[in-house]
């Protein structure tokens, strides 16, 4: 239109939460040595999880880990009624962080890329009896901070913005407990991570850290997978406030 | 597996919000006379909105409505710098309600269907200077309750769970302010509507009210459109609590 106009924004309802984001140039990005066993394929992953599941059983919080017998005929785990009734929820749980920065006036999500192909959110699997927030802090430190086992990297973990379930380890995740099964194998939780005005990211050399615009991620499950491509939708209730000074 | 097991559910984090839903059989569904001018096509809609935009200008909250001059050559509205700087946000705003019921142990969303084809969320356009919550209550009453202009139908409007924008009236909506334009034409806000344990829905005869499972809506933009098909993702952070008694 050739005319310079003040930006026209949606009105912020009183209850609409605000999210402060800072320009990408506020952050420093460095590299460190790669961690062993990083960068497995999807097929490797499914095999490893099935082997763990059969050998070590499922995780329980604050209780013992039960070994689940596997049917000789079908390879399907046979539920022991007592185990399920006794224990707290039995489920592989992963926690991931959604970290946002601003570039060209548009919010970008920080994603890790493995071998120039698949994209990951920083995060990973909880240890037995580990709390969501504690586990996510540990995973963010291992993927995004200098290697310092005693370092407190001051991650500010915000609310859980979404959850996805897998009925089987190879299954496509869905954003609700799968109605076809009463025992989903995996749950993936996404947490908002509020970044400070400035910080240092130190990433293992076998991974690349990229800032990807919401507009590129949205509706692009083919490249980013269903969980990441749904993030712009999960963030849409927030009013982004870009802080430049 | 042949064994009866206690359901295995994801652990609810302390901060994970709970959402009570009630079985579909708790609700009564009736019909009433159709409203005039309901059920236009997408092309009709775009034409109507463009005509309104050119003739009556954009909505401002609590202020005057400016008429925006339209270029004779292109038909594109010419922004008046002073209008934009002067006024509060200028944008067509629609509000929609997400109403949930339980059926077969799985959450279902209440959708309106027009002429056996397109699906809609109950809701509609805000009037000039109308607040989101007030406008949504008015729209829910007009689409889902007995025709009673003075009736207070006790809608309990919860939080805004998502927002979508259109850069042009025919454009595909996106869940972030479109980076390509500083003046999006439309904003669509989705609010959670908490249903009581029982209530009556009275729907105009030209619309059908359907309860559609999350698993059918998810990732099915071809049938339900991008906004509705993203609802399961928006709801995934909630822990559903089905209340039967």
Automatic annotation (TrEMBL), chains A, B:
Q: Which UniProt keywords apply?
A: mRNA processing, Nucleus, RNA-binding
Q: What is its main location?
A: nucleus
Q: Which GO terms describe its molecular function?
A: mRNA 3'-UTR AU-rich region binding
Might you name a Gene Ontology BP term for this protein? mRNA 3'-end processing
Task: List the Pfam families hit by this protein, alphabetically.
Answer: NUDIX_2
Any one GO CC term of this protein is:
mRNA cleavage factor complex
Gene3D superfamilies registered for this protein in UniProt: Nucleoside Triphosphate Pyrophosphohydrolase (3.90.79.10)
- Do you know which CDD domains this protein is assigned to? NUDIX_Cfim25_Nudt21
State where the protein is found: Nucleus
Q: Entry's InterPro entries?
A: Cleav_polyA_spec_factor_su5
On assembly, the entry states: Homodimer. Component of the cleavage factor Im (CFIm) complex.
**Protein family membership:** Belongs to the Nudix hydrolase family. CPSF5 subfamily.
Q: What does this protein do?
A: Component of the cleavage factor Im (CFIm) complex that plays a key role in pre-mRNA 3'-processing. Involved in association with CPSF6 or CPSF7 in pre-MRNA 3'-end poly(A) site cleavage and poly(A) addition. NUDT21/CPSF5 binds to cleavage and polyadenylation RNA substrates. The homodimer mediates simultaneous sequence-specific recognition of two 5'-UGUA-3' elements within the pre-mRNA. Binds to, but does not hydrolyze mono- and di-adenosine nucleotides. May have a role in mRNA export.
**Protein name (record):** Pre-mRNA cleavage factor Im 25 kDa subunit
Which gene is transcribed and translated to give this protein?
A: LOC123160920
